[in-house]
Specification:
- Among the domains are: 1-49, no CATH class; 50-144, Type II secretion system, protein E, N-terminal domain (GMP Synthetase, Chain A, domain 3), CATH 3.30.300.160; 340-486, GAF domain (Beta-Lactamase, 2-Layer Sandwich).
- Helix content is 31%, strand content 11%.
- The chain has 16 helices and 9 strands.
- The longest helix is centred in the C-terminal third of the chain and has 24 residues, at 463-486.
- It is flat, with a radius of gyration of 46 Å.
Length: 487
């Protein structure tokens, strides 16, 4: 149960009984996870939960990179309430690795295994990293309206009928039924009724009666004609006049009747109103017959012209703006080589070059590409590369300590994609423009609390195994560098 974490912290002396009671009260009334409530109520618990709660049978991790598809498969709010984030699914066994604050809680393992439909392995992680991973996916827990006294007071009242009261419709001729007299107090009805239906009128004179229906008249018989109706001759169509009527004077108004013919006029009929138009005389010659020169026929191959234009535009563009062909990076698959020979080579390294070669060989055991950087004059310079990386490109230009590099130094490790704009220098040094959606592992090695080396790799077949080996290599490299500096 989630209270086991508080019980263990109380028995170990990390929190006091009053702090535990306050944390349990906050968790029950406000719906806050117990780990977050303990961190808010106790400074000692906050300092303890800033790092993974490492157990004997559970691995640990410091940087949590959530798997969005696995996290969205859980019910809304479960990841935030249990402080559990799925980070990886083994393609061979189907086991889902889940980063949790308390890896000793069996309730979390049972709940996640039920909803994910797969076996679950719990991995200890810091509280802040788990909360940050939950916020990255954007699945906050739903707010419980009855979680606190203030929320309960603000809860909406019970649902009632908000429609306006209407008087009941009474059929004509039907008197309302009166309620029987009773000496006891009337019960309150569940549905509010209007005052008109509470008691029936006792006076029969006020009772509405329907008027008697009028006497119905006998139906008229339907007469069926026995003779066929007379045949009607069709109306002849009007004969169109082929002679167009041309007017020389424009008409300003229309008359309702045609003007009568003048005396001495030879025309036998008047011009009808439908022929009067304010139009000019039509031309007597065809304008197309006046053009004597023949039309020139042009044949243009538009497809050939477009191909030539596209080829010329492609040659005119610079090489940086041309569309690059990206491929999907094939990660290094297990089984991975043993790290024991590499650690032995690091322990017996006598110079800087032997140490760099051993570190690159160790990083490349689980990654398709590996690189090594060292700080110099406030910037990082490349020392070497392994796998499908060009060492000359890694050593080409120094990089500023910003973006992903600064985040890795501050957190101790960083696993994720790089921003092509903010991390442009590291993006070019690792030649990531060839691939799509590549996760890069950055792990610094510290000497005297200062970053002395930066291990970088991508194309990892197992992210957790790569992170564990990078942590072991960084520790061994720091010890070897201190030994070389004391010589």
């Amino acid at each position: 149960m989630p209270l086991d974490l508080g019980r263990r912290l109380l028995e170990s002396g990390v929190v006091q009984s009053g702090e535990l009671r306050r944390a349990v009260f906050e968790s029950l009334t406000r719906g806050k996870p117990l780990a977050r409530a303990l961190a808010d109520s106790s400074s000692a618990a906050r300092a303890l939960l800033q790092r993974p709660l490492e157990g004997a049978a559970h691995p640990s991790m410091r940087a949590v990179v959530p798997q969005a598809d696995l996290l969205r498969a859980l019910p809304a709010g479960m990841a935030a309430r249990l402080l559990a984030v799925p980070v990886r699914k083994d393609p061979r066994t189907g086991t889902v690795d889940v980063a949790v604050v308390d890896p000793l809680d069996p309730h979390v393992e049972a709940e996640l295994a039920f909803h994910l439909g797969a076996p679950v392995r719990l991995i200890a992680a810091p509280l802040a990293e788990v909360e940050r991973a939950v916020l990255l996916v954007g699945r906050p827990p739903p707010k419980d309206p009855l979680s606190s006294t203030a929320d309960y007071a603000a809860a909406p009242p019970s649902i009632t009928d908000s429609r306006p009261e209407q008087s009941p419709r009474t059929e004509p001729g039907v008197a309302p039924v009166a309620a029987p007299a009773s000496t006891e107090e009337d019960a309150v009805p569940l549905v509010r009724r209007s005052r008109a239906t509470m008691r029936a009128p006792k006076d029969e004179k006020n009772t509405l009666r329907a008027p008697p229906p009028p006497p119905s008249a006998p139906p008229q018989p339907v007469r069926v004609p026995t003779e066929r109706p007379p045949r009607v001759a069709p109306i002849p169509a009007p004969v169109a006049n082929t002679r167009p009527a041309v007017t020389t004077q424009p008409q300003t108004s229309l008359e309702t009747t045609a003007p009568a013919p003048r005396a001495g006029d030879d025309r036998s009929e008047a011009v009808p109103l439908s022929r009067r138009r304010d139009t000019a005389r039509p031309p007597t010659t065809d304008p197309y017959e006046q053009r004597k020169e023949p039309a020139v026929q042009m044949v243009v191959d538009f497809r050939a012209a477009s191909r030539e234009e596209r080829a010329a535009a492609a040659q005119a563009r610079p090489a940086a703006e041309r569309k690059s062909t990206r491929v999907k990076l094939e990660p290094k698959r297990p089984p991975f080589p043993s790290l024991t020979p590499v650690l032995e080579a690091i322990d017996v390294a006598q110079d800087r070059d032997a140490l760099i070669a051993a570190l690159l060989r160790g990083i490349a055991t689980t990654s398709a590409a590996a690189a090594l950087f060292a700080p110099r004059r406030g910037k990082l310079t490349g020392l070497g590369a392994a796998g499908n990386l060009d060492p000359a490109r890694v050593r080409a230009a120094p990089m500023s300590l910003r973006g992903a590099l600064a985040d890795a130094i501050a957190r101790g490790e960083r696993i994720g994609t790089l921003d092509p704009v903010a991390d442009r220098e590291l993006y070019d040094a690792l030649a990531l423009e060839r691939f799509t959606s590549v996760h890069v592992l950055l792990h610094p090695a510290f000497v005297a609390d200062k970053p002395a080396l930066m291990l970088a790799s991508y194309g990892m077949g197992d992210v957790l195994e790569s992170s564990r080996r990078a942590r072991v290599l960084a520790t061994a490299a720091a010890a070897a560098m201190e030994r070389l500096l004391r010589r």
